[in-house]
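Hi V.,

Quick status before I head out on leave. The structure for the redesign project is tokenized and pasted below; the design run finished overnight.
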């Protein structure tokens, strides 16, 4: 089903997975995780493209599993930055042949130690969106509550967001964040400049304090002082830290839903256990408000 049609009638719950870097055993573990995620009745599951465009064939296979084996709606990422037109055509044709209707259209961040020329053919997500138009996918795009790290200001980034919508994006999914006020500012300012598409907040439960540095390097996301204090106090107690991470994510989600978010997208890092723990805490909310 097309995600814009789902969003037109209900609030969505969705998860994101990524292609494992190892072989068939890890792939089978991911398929098992997808089967577990299905039990939570998500409206769609997205699958990333792999850093630098790697794992594109695996991404197609995972999207195929989501769509045709698990019987769920798949959202396949396509990253333009490292890709040639031939690369994009191969992936887009394969997805279309598998019945996948939804694509998240991304430029993609240049991965560390990537030596090949980057963004030769598709320097912006809008270029990729225009190229994909003949395939008639429902296109989604990324947005950044705290501004893209390469953009000089949030407002310059908002201009790019509007360009993505004008190029065909029917919905947006945000980069992860831990301070909801950044999401509300993004929505307010995006509406002010004319963006009308749904903006789905992306939440990544922070259950391992070792991930803080990686998150900062990846997207610059701010960790609120109260949350950071809890993390630092209990960093050496994994079970407590896990509980804190789950409950902070639940707090974020409850606040977002109360203030009108059109859905929740959980970055679960292929971990169905994390998704289950959070959904268990939100069981009544999911039943009554989604």
């Amino acid at each position: 089903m097309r995600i814009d049609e789902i969003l037109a009638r209900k609030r969505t719950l969705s998860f994101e997975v990524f292609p494992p870097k190892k072989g068939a055993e890890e792939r089978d573990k991911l398929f098992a995780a997808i089967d577990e995620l299905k039990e939570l009745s998500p409206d769609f599951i997205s699958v990333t493209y792999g850093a630098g465009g790697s794992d594109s064939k695996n991404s197609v296979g995972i999207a195929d599993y989501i769509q045709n084996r698990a019987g769920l709606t798949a959202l396949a990422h396509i990253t333009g930055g490292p890709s040639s037109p031939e690369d994009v055509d191969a992936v887009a044709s394969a997805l279309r042949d598998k019945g996948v209707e939804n694509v998240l259209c991304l430029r993609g961040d240049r991965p560390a130690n990537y030596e090949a020329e980057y963004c030769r053919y598709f320097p912006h997500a809008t270029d990729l969106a225009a190229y994909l138009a003949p395939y008639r996918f429902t296109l989604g795009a990324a947005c950044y509550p705290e501004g893209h790290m390469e953009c000089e200001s949030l407002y310059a980034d908002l201009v790019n967001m509007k360009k993505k919508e004008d190029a065909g994006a029917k919905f947006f999914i945000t980069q992860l964040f831990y301070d909801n006020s950044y999401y509300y500012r993004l929505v307010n300012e995006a509406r002010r400049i004319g963006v009308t598409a749904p903006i789905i907040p992306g939440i990544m439960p922070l259950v391992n304090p070792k991930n803080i540095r990686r998150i900062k390097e990846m997207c610059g996301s701010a960790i609120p002082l109260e949350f950071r204090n809890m993390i630092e106090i209990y960093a050496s107690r994994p079970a407590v830290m896990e509980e804190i991470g789950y409950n902070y994510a639940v707090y974020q989600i409850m606040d977002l839903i109360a203030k009108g978010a059109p859905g929740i997208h959980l970055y679960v890092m292929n971990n169905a256990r994390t998704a289950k723990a959070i959904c268990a805490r939100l069981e009544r909310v999911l039943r009554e408000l989604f």
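Above is the designed sequence. Residues 172 and 199 are 5 Å apart (CA to CA).

G. will cover questions while I'm gone.

Best,
W.
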